[in-house]
Write a structure and sequence with these properties.
Elements lengths: L11 H6 L3 H44 L6 H45 L5 H8 L6 H4 L2 H26 L32
Helix pairs in contact: 2-3, 3-4, 3-6
Length: 198
């Protein structure tokens, strides 16, 4: 009687040269996950880098704009860079970052289903993004940005209304002359036929 047959040996060379379907799927998951994470980090890094640059522009407008503009006009002008950042940078890039985050959560679900690995970082992030009435539990940076934009819009409207009454450009101020000025009447020419004193 012969013993149980040994399982067939896999050809290691063939395994290394031609990966099995399981290994190939792991590599695809890993590659896509890494690319999505890198893209996600780049998106939000760019958003806040641009915000820091435009905050410096806002501060410069507040400091140096008052030399040529009235205070209300300088304040109104200083809100414009951050409002442009919100409309042209934050909203579209945050939406794109949300799409990347959702895809990462889907990848984590597929990895858990296929391989049993407990990968839940972006899955938990997606769950926490859902609004809750207990605002301190679901507070996100997004809400702070929206609050900032509301304040900026109010400041812009009040500054424009104030500037409409007082004007937006500073009126030139005449230079002050310190010292005494003596004004003497001009000498009149002598009239013909009159005698001049000797």
């Amino acid at each position: 009687m012969s013993g149980p047959e040994a399982p067939p040996r896999r050809d290691l060379a063939a395994t290394n040269d031609q990966p099995t379907t399981g290994n190939y799927r792991v590599d695809l998951y890993k590659m896509e996950y890494e690319q999505c994470v890198s893209c996600y980090q780049d998106i939000y890094g760019s958003i806040w880098r641009i915000f820091s640059y435009l905050s410096a522009v806002t501060a410069a407008l507040l400091v140096f704009g008052t030399q040529y503009l009235t205070p209300s006009a300088a304040v109104a002008a200083s809100t414009v860079p951050l409002l442009i950042w919100f409309l042209c940078i934050y909203l579209p890039m945050d939406r794109y970052g949300g799409l990347r985050s959702d895809r990462l959560a889907e990848l984590e679900g597929e990895i858990r289903k296929d391989y049993g690995a407990d990968v839940r970082h972006f899955t938990l992030l997606k769950e926490k993004r859902q609004f809750q009435w207990r605002i301190w539990r679901s507070w996100r940076v997004r809400y702070g940005v929206y609050l900032l934009v509301i304040v900026l819009l109010l400041v812009l409207v009040v500054s424009l209304l104030s500037g409409a009454r007082t004007g937006f450009l500073k009126k030139p101020v005449a230079a002050k002359f310190e010292g005494k000025v003596e004004i003497t009447p001009p000498l009149s020419p002598p009239v013909s036929g009159t005698r001049t004193p000797n």
